[in-house]
Amino acid sequence: MVKFALSELTRYIVILAWMAINIYLFANAFIELNTSKRNFYLRKIVKEGLAFARASAAVLNFNCMLILLTMSRNLLSFIRGIGCGHNVLRFLDKHKTFHKYIAYMICLQTVIHIVAHVFNVEFFVESHKSNDPLIQRLNSFQDMGNETYLNPIRNDNANAVVELWKLASGITGAAITLSLILMLSSSTELIRRSYFEVFWNTHHLFVIFYAGLFIHGIQGVVRFQSNYEEHNPEFCSTINVTSWNTEDRCKTEPKFVPFGMNTWKWIVGTVFLYIIERGIRFFRSFQEVKILKVVNHPSKVIEIQMKKKGFHHDAGQYIFLKCPKLSHLEWHPFTLTSAPEDDFFSVHIRIAGDWTGGLAKLMNGDGVEPRSLGDMPRLAVDGPFGTASTDVFKYPVVMCIGAGIGVTPFGSVLKSIWYQHNQNNVNPVVKKVYFFWICPDTNAFEWFTDLLQYLEDRMMATGNADFLEYNIYLTRGWGPNMARTIVLHEDEEEDIITGCKQKTRYGRPEWNKIFASIAKSHPRTNVGVFFCGPAGLSHELHKVADEQSNNDDGVKFLYNKENF
């Protein structure tokens, strides 16, 4: 367990630093608003509501600045490309997880901010009914060049709800909050998996969200005393307000000015970077993409082979696809299944939703034979973007583990490793590959086994049969009839399910034994472990990799998980 924690040290340090900054910003603003002289008179009216509102605003400013950076994929790919250590790359791979953490913090602070300001408006309204001479005097100040009054609600008989909707901060706050609610609710796992279009389109409400942030404080509702040195509020509040004119320290009337707009100072930089990010995407959307071939695979999977001028990718990267005939806004991520050494790039798309179903229909026409290439719909490609799998060539021994459709990234990786291994003028870093594929049912085998059969044949032909060791596990989906069929064909050379020479295994892998065996076979070696699949299995593999590292054999398993 200690090893597992140490392997995530960079992530924990960053999260703890982020939390520390959030706590500091909140506490610093809260204490300053609750103790400073310039806010003394305002506290008399709104009590601690001001401190909670401004403290949460400070945290919101910081996190609204950060959250756009976590979705700036070109920036993240650039950082990955300049060469970083394993721990930094591990953190970059977690950018979507960190994006969620920041979003949760924004939601929490938004609730605090809203509740505090609702009370503040109520306090401003109720202060007109107060019998306190000091509060009555503070409310009596009129607008003299925007430097005198403190209470923004000037009507003695005001209604708090009506007054809230008269304020620019109330209107923009409602727009910001509604946008946030819609973005958060559409980001649930169910919506993203089943209705990706809803998630994608609703998330573009971030434009309204940030526009509202820019102008949220434009009216300057919350104000502070600007001349507290000439008029000491801590002293003047202790004497009768009718004596201010006779007391030297209180003769000067207090003046109040707006806090001003501060949020734009925090977010203008990251918004500018994100505009560049979207500008790059907009430019790429007009670049010509030539469709070379469309292949219908079993289990509702289509393969699209394409070419694009100037397009270069590394093994394991992914792209975003847009089909203007289906939508001018929607971009969908797909892992590249071609190797960099191929003279094309390709994706395999499982038909599992409205967009993918619509794309398949545009590609296939009658659903049996693809349309002619001249009738294919126009596609736009954004990317490629880096993932954990791009680091596979840094290790002499590699473990590639895919679960279900999570096997997709390894199509590109395995082909590229094989190409490099067979180039006579190149001494590849990778000397041995262990590939594990865990499938929930037999349908998942159908399209990827073509690649495995090809690699198997090529390895046999070139005398490199030991270079790639692969194991396929079927975890469920067989019954008594299938079990009998498997037993009857056990002695045949090829596996009855995959058609490969390597026999399919049934049940779940025993990962502790597998890792221990690899450690024994490769002493004093850094082994790269790459996984794509569900979070539960990822956690198990990560834990086993850390437990089996730095044992008596001196092996270190470095874990990497796909996130896109």
Main attributes of the structure:
564 residues, alpha/beta, six-stranded parallel sheet, three-stranded antiparallel sheet, 14% strand, elongated, disordered N terminus
Structure explained in plain terms:
The structure is a single chain. The chain has helices spanning 2-7, 9-35, 40-46, 49-69, 73-81, 86-93, 95-127, 133-140, 160-166, 168-185, 189-194, 196-203, 206-215, 233-236, 263-284, 354-364, 409-421, 449-462, 480-488, 511-521, 535-547, and strands at 223-225, 256-258, 289-297, 301-308, 318-322, 332-335, 345-350, 380-385, 397-403, 432-439, 468-474, 505-506, 526-532, 556-561. Helix 21 (535-547) links the parallel strand 13 (526-532) and strand 14 (556-561). The longest helix is centred in the first third of the chain and has 33 residues, at 95-127. Mean pLDDT is 80; it is low at 1-6. Helix 10 runs antiparallel to helix 13 (206-215). The strands form four sheets. A six-stranded parallel β-sheet has the order 12-11-10-9-13-14, sandwiched between helices. Strands 3-4-7 form a three-stranded antiparallel β-sheet, with helices on one face. 47% of the residues lie in helices and 14% in strands. It is built from 21 helices and 14 strands. By secondary structure, it is of the alpha/beta class.
